[in-house]
Amino acid sequence: MIKVVKFGGSSVANSEQFQKVKKIVTSDPSRKFVVTSACGKSGKDDHKVTDLLYLCAAHINYGVSYESIFALINEKYTEIKDSLGLSIDLASEFAQIKRNIDQDLNVDYLVSRGEYLTALCLAEYLGADFVDASQVIRFNYDGTINLDKTRELLTAKVTPGRLTVIPGFYGALPNGVIKVMSRGGSDITGSVVANAFDADVYENWTDISGFYVADPRLVKNPVQIPRITYSELRQMSYMGANVLHDDAVFPVREKNIPINVRNTNHPEKPGTMIMNDCSDLDQEDPPHIITGITGKRDFTVITLVQSHASAEAGFLRKALSIFEKYQVSIESVPVTVDTFSIVVQSKTIEKKLYEIISELKKELHFDDVQVESHLAMLAVVGRAMRRVPGMSGKLLSVLGDQQINIRTLSQACDEQSIVIGVENKDFGKAIQAIYQQFISEENRKR
Q1: 372 in a labelled binding site
Q2: How many angstroms separate the CA atoms of 297 and 270, rounded?
Q3: 3 state SS for 131-194
Q4: 309 pLDDT band (50/70/90 cuts)?
Q5: Which positions bind substrate (predicted)?
Q6: 6 is in an annotated binding site
């Protein structure tokens, strides 16, 4: 068996966390590949290394000294080195980084040094091989990852049977220039490595014990999700559940490799298993009707009113093309016979709203337009919902009982997710009401 294990920033925040990581890795010989984030926060007054590196870059761009910030980063790694008795030559590493950025600042190079230094320290501490991500994670020039080339480079660079540590978050373009991923990109690196070596499991270690049905900040002691499908996870992640980077799913889903989200601070807990198909396990242990409830605030809904709009060919295409022209992503498009609504995140349209409406009027000559902001979108996700007749009606009834006004409603044809629009002020109340009715009540009956 081969396991790829990725440790997030909180898992490698200090020397004490490094010790926990070592216990986890050495407790299972099948954990062959370790991907690490940069050191995270040790406490409330600490800072993530990546944040400090971005701050260094900002100081350099504005011609302000970055020495004090750079010293904080040095201190963090020196503490880890000294506490663990490592021999890594940090002075030379930091001197080289300074020379490189003083000669020619490459922001991607600079911010990638957090993962680079963390992986160097972790590799020595684990007695593992270190493989620089810039040598094996290959981007195309359009910013996508070249999986075939990455697999080729990894296979050539890794010594079979040896424990290997690879920094997350960055790779290199075809010309060798370092490029970083979006924040949280170490999740993607782990997924790519799992794909390359046909891993049996991709373990993602963080500071929570898997996914929960609802946000613990909104629902007290929510039920943990024991297993979830890739498609359910994608929908929950897109609508605000940020345990795992959205794009980490694709490389492992391609090869049906399960992801196990675990807690570094509580390794005895099984966490949440993310799988392509949960049907066999569901027969033995039926899931809740609802797998997860998540969402985001601050959406704007633009509703266009036009008699017989649904019968006019090209009407919707013309409207959507205007949003595309202004580079505004669309979340959903609820449609009725004479109206259709376009739901977008408020932050993407607030500076362009009046220009877009003006152009919509010019091109479509609709009868009326209504704009409503300060809305929240809730995603109720569950593979078991398709077995429940009238699920949408049940949800609406629950919210109606709480005097929560529903602004929009859409349901996918696979009956796996229902998206409900409510006012921002009702966001938490709506999630609590749905959880109480469909999770707490169901638990009492079990």
Answers
A1: no
A2: 31
A3: CCHHHHCEECCCCCECHHHHHHHHHHHCCCCCCEEEECCEEECCCCCEEECCCCCHHHHHHHHH
A4: low
A5: 50, 115
A6: yes
Asked whether 275 and 255 are in contact (CB, 8 A), the reply is: no
Measured torsion, CA atoms of residues 194, 200, 205, 211, in degrees rounded to the nearest 10: 110
Residues in the chain: 446
**7 known ligand binder:** yes
Q: Where in the chain is the domain with CATH 3.30.2130.10?
A: 292-445
Can you name the residues that pair with 422 across neighbouring β-strands?
376, 406
408 is in an annotated binding site: no
Domain with CATH 3.40.1160.10 in the chain: 3-208+243-255
> According to the annotation, is 62 in a ligand binding site?
no
- Distance CA(217)–CA(371), nearest Å, equals 30
> What is the C-alpha to C-alpha distance for residues 278 and 272, in angstroms, rounded to an integer?
12
> Residues 309, 315: contact at Cβ < 8 Å?
yes
Q: Where are the alpha helices (DSSP H) in 63-106?
A: 67-84, 90-103
Q: To the nearest 10°, the Cα dihedral for 202, 204, 145, 129?
A: -80
Whether 217 has a binding-site annotation, put simply, is yes
Give the model confidence (pLDDT) of 267-307 as tens digits: 999 999 999 989 888 888 888 899 999 999 999 999 988 88
Domain 292-445 fold:
VC0802-like (3.30.2130)
The reply to whether 129 sits in an annotated binding site is: no
Beta bridge partners of 262: 205
**C-alpha–C-alpha distance, residues 110 and 413, integer Å:** 46
**Range with top average pLDDT, 108-117, 245-254, 324-333:** 108-117
In the β-sheet with 368-381, what is the strand arrangement from edge to edge?
Answer: 339-345, 292-305, 368-381, 417-423, 406-411
Measure the CA–CA gap between 182 and 185, rounded to whole angstroms: 5
Domain 3-208+243-255 has CATH 1.10.357.10: no
- 254 assigned ligand-binding residue: no
Q: Is position 115 annotated in a ligand binding site? A: yes
Across the range 305-322, mean pLDDT stands at 81
The count of other CB atoms within 10 Å of the CB of residue 143 is 10
The model's pTM: 0.86
Binding residue per annotation — 26? no
pLDDT digits (tens, 9 = 90+) for 353-386: 999 999 998 888 888 989 999 999 999 999 999 8
Cα 135 to Cα 36, 127, 161, 180, 185, distances in angstroms: 16, 20, 20, 13, 17
